[in-house]
Amino acid sequence: MSTESQSDYRNSIAGTTSAADLHITLANLQFDARFEAALAPHTCAAFRNLLPLTRKMIHCRWSGEGVWLPLDPWLLPWRVENPMGHPAPGQILLYAGGPSEPELLIPYGQCAFNSKFGALSGNHFLTIVSNLDSLIELGRKLLWEGAQDCTIELQSERQRTA
């Protein structure tokens, strides 16, 4: 995706009025995200069962400007929904089928989803809707400082415990 296209994408979601479903803390940076339930209903439902999720995230090895969170072995039925191989910053992909390990991919810049086995396609099921400009800071932090903490939780759970 070109820099101009990424800018257009950022502008298009910056004005979104849909409520955020999730709160994501990545290396002490705060983001809100929404489920793409109309486009990936089964993926959203399966991921919801993993919440709250706390993991270490690392910089991508094969995909360019992105970070990823390894997941446990995926035991649920896997469906391809809303597949994507070149996500824009903030378009979160879940991959759980095929030769590579289950993971979340969070792009912060130019990203082509790959593994040592070649090109991959993940289900675009979450979109970050706040603080997109901090994604570049996140990428730099992981690249130069190594693994960082990540927590993903439902907004409703976060509000109840706050």
Overall average pLDDT: 86
Give the helices and strands as they follow along the chain. HEEHEEEEEEEEHEH
CATH architecture: Beta Barrel
Distance between the termini: 38 Å
Largest sheet: 8 strands, antiparallel, barrel
Content-based structural category: alpha+beta
Principal-axes geometry comes out as globular
The number of distinct β-strands equals 11
Instruction: Tell me the β content.
Output: 35-45%
Give a structural overview.
The chain has a single domain (3-161), classed as Cyclophilin (Beta Barrel), CATH 2.40.100.20. It is globular, with a radius of gyration of 15 Å. The protein has helices at residues 3-14, 41-48, 135-145, 155-161, and strands spanning 22-26, 29-35, 53-59, 64-70, 83-84, 91-95, 103-111, 114-115, 118-119, 122-128, 148-154. Strand 6 (91-95) and strand 7 (103-111) form a beta hairpin. It has 162 residues and is of the alpha+beta class. The chain is built from four helices and eleven strands. The strands form two sheets. Strands 1-2-10-6-7-4-3-11 form an eight-stranded antiparallel β-barrel. A two-stranded antiparallel ribbon has the order 8-9.
